[in-house]
Amino acid sequence: MQQKNYIIDELNPQQKQAVLENSCNLLILAGAGSGKTKTITHKIAFILNEGLAKPHQILALTFTNKAAGEMRERIEKLIGSQASDMWIGTFHSIALRILRHEGFRPTIYDSKDQENLIKEILKKLNIDPKKYTPKSFCASISSLKLKLTKPDGLKVSSPFEKYLKSVYKLYEEELNKANAVDFDNIILKAIELLEENQRIREKYSNRFKYIFIDEYQDTNYPQYLFVRLLYNKSNIVCAVGDEDQSIYGFRGAQIDNILKFDKEYDNCKVIKLEKNYRSAQEILNIANTLISKNSLRKEKRLYSDKIGGRISIVNLANENEEASFVAEQIQKLQYNGESLSDIAVLYRTNFQSRTIEEALIRYGIPYNIIGSKRFLERKEIKDVIAYLKLLINPSDNLAFLRAIGSHPRGIGAKLIQTISKTSDDLDTSMFEASQWLLENNRLTPRQTNALKQFLEIFTIDTKQSVDRIIDAIIDRSGFKNHLEQTGDFDRIANIMELKNAGNLDSLEAFLEDLSLLDYSNELEEQKESVRLMTIHASKGLEFNTVFIVGVEEGLFPNENLKRDEMDIEEERRLFYVAITRAKTNLFITHASARKRGMEYQPSKPSRFLLEIKQAQKPTSLKRGDRIKHAVYGEGVVLSKDGQLLVVNFLKNGIKKILEKDRNLSAI
To answer: Which one of 164, 517, 629, 636 has the largest count of C-beta atoms within 10 Å of its C-beta?
Structure first.
């Protein structure tokens, strides 16, 4: 009797093929919910168990420490502690490990260290940090590094770029002096080492017999190049990913890396994992139809053994009706035994959470926001509320401190300490102490100018509507300009959404509405709660029931995009990711109108809704039609008798199947 191989026998045919193919470079296209992690961990375990490589000859690159830890844990469960010598880690941790092995032991600067260094550089160069913020320089330098652009290679076409070139050059010089690297430089230094030192490059390319890359669709150019430098045509590279889930272009991810993999690596095979273990086929049908509209992809079609999925596309009058609908449906699901923790509400941008949060609070449904803060707890919202509170109550010292520190404005810790001491000495508020300091000429000219500008914000007419007050505050204070300079457009959108959070006729009533909502949020959270998150934050997660809200033009696809076809394709992939988070129930909602300031403006359904509705129409087939079956492949209909089709499949011969077979689709 043949001995059972516990590593491969529990795998499906496509997973097993991926595990057993170890003599060539391999691209595993792992569709959503197809058992990607299981396949890659079983493949590594099989290689080690069969003696095809020793543990130290295995390199596996991931994007998170969590993914690396899970991978290592699963492999060790399969074959034991012999796997402990594998090099499994994030791109950055592996690059740093190589650098340290070769004698380069840098200090690592985190984002706060970077900002502090750039603040010092701006002082040296006499650049106004209010006009051009340290964060804007950090973001721009990081973008340049993703393109491997050095300071001397930066072409100047604007005043900011002129400053950027000088700041970038001095920034790199200061890092080198301090024997330090920022996050981007970790991989860049490793690339530089491998490119310039052939002995070291050969040492590591010869060491790693097998190189695995997880989530290959998310790799940027430096990560791609890092792997290419470790490849020597004698070792084997296995990339695992799904181009249909490439949603991080805004972070520098290049979908071309996965699309061209089989052309760039010699002797390469492509294996598709198309069996989905998560979602009902009805949900996969609309996901397949949607993503088929993209041109930047390799053809695959997900299928499942599960049936009975429920899909509802619902049009509501406005965002408040939409939020109430979501809350009502959750109540019904809960009544029918669904766990709240198995329900998620997904949205394209963070500001959309506000109306959903309010509805859930009204209905007494506990919730948690994943990957972000509750609406009223977000920094920019707290900052604006502090300005509003100070407008009607100048004695509120907490609001004073929050508002004056909301963003850089030339008021440092020393001046705030002076204001605080004066407040204590005079037994008055910090606002009044500030006025006293100005009236009595107790400050330096620079301090005087900065503090005077701050106090002038609060001459705004508080009798006008609250939306106009908010606009005036963020303009006069320079807060809006600060957010624009740092590229924080989501935070600007959140502030715009704040205008819709209460009674706009009266500032006092508006703040009262917010305080009552905030009080409701203080209710003790239950362990079982609905999950709210952006679609980006949902990647890798799954829920029995998913609500996707705000599926409208301008929101999804997002109006802040350049709107070229590549942007639209990434937005479509994002919608595909959202759909494939659902196991059984999928609700997609859109509103006919949304409030912008004081008025409702009409909204159009997203173009993506028109595309997925095609999947819900029955398909009527006839003789001669070309079809595709998830199991039998492509074929041609020879004849039809009622619901029974006779099909000649190109690779599997003639079969009889039902027209309503869930694995069947027209080509």
So the answer is: 164
Question: With 60 as the cut, is the pLDDT of residue 76 above it?
Answer: yes
Identified catalytic residue from 14, 39, 133, 215: 215
Name, in order, each residue with C-beta under 8 angstroms of 266's C-beta and a sequence gap of 6 or more. Answer: 25, 233
For 155, phi and psi rounded to 5 degrees?
A: -85, 130
Residue 1 pLDDT level (bands cut at 50, 70, 90): very low
pLDDT digits (tens, 9 = 90+) for 402-413: 999 998 888 988
d(CA 215, CA 223): 12
Q: Catalytic one among 184, 214, 242, 319? A: 214
CA–CA distances in Å: residue 610 to residues 139, 239, 294: 37, 34, 15
User: Is the predicted pLDDT of residue 523 greater than 70, yes or no?
Assistant: no
Active-site residue, from 21, 37, 115, 448:
37
Q: Which of the residues 16, 36, 145, 491 is marked catalytic?
A: 36
DSSP one-letter string for 57-71: GEEEEESSHHHHHHH
Query: Is 245 in the active site?
Result: yes
Q: Is residue 425 flagged as an active site residue?
A: no
**37 catalytic, yes or no?**
yes
CB 584 within 8 A of CB 280: yes
Q: How far apart are alpha carbons 621 and 272 in whole angstroms?
A: 27
Question: Known catalytic residue: 573?
Answer: no
Task: Assess whether 177 carries a catalytic annotation.
Answer: no
Catalytic residue among 581, 583, 594, 662: 581
**Tokens (6 digits) for 7:** 């590593």
Q: Is 244 among the residues known to form the active site?
A: no
